[in-house]
From TrEMBL:
Gene3D superfamilies: Ribonuclease Z/Hydroxyacylglutathione hydrolase-like. SUPFAM superfamilies: Metallo-hydrolase/oxidoreductase. Pfam families: Lactamase_B (PF00753). It comes from the Bacteria. Residues 107-118 have a biased composition (Basic and acidic residues). This is Metallo-beta-lactamase domain-containing protein.
């Protein structure tokens, strides 16, 4: 969706699918489909390194931005809840913007994010 809007004349080099494993600089990363910020949003998780590259899905202090026409707050909270907060608490979250955090630091505030949005 967004690729086509930005690059209407080009095809992507490849697509990522849920559960796919890719190797980058010797690290194995598992693709987690985490829609909400955008329909095709993904996070990359390395269990061996105990690291999650969350992009714009999870930041320190809550989920990523959902104020755009293609984003949705309930969807991103579901993605964070079902796909990310199930990871070990010590998992380091390297965000797309701002400071890093951990799953354990963010998990207790899930209900607060929902209440603040209401």
């Amino acid at each position: 969706m967004l690729w086509d809007a930005v690059f209407p004349e080009e095809e992507p080099d490849a697509t990522l699918t849920e559960g796919q494993t890719i190797e980058v600089a010797g690290a194995r990363l598992t693709v987690l489909h985490t829609p909400g910020h955008a329909p095709g949003s993904v996070c990359l998780h390395s269990p061996e390194l105990a690291v999650l590259f969350s992009g714009d899905t999870l930041f320190q202090g809550g989920p990523g931005a959902t104020g755009r026409s293609f984003s949705d707050f309930d969807t991103i909270v579901a993605s964070v809840t079902d796909r990310l907060l199930t990871l070990p608490g010590e998992t380091l979250v390297l965000t797309g913007h701002g400071d890093s955090t951990t799953i354990g630091a963010e998990a207790p505030d899930r209900q607060k994010w929902i209440d603040d949005q209401a």
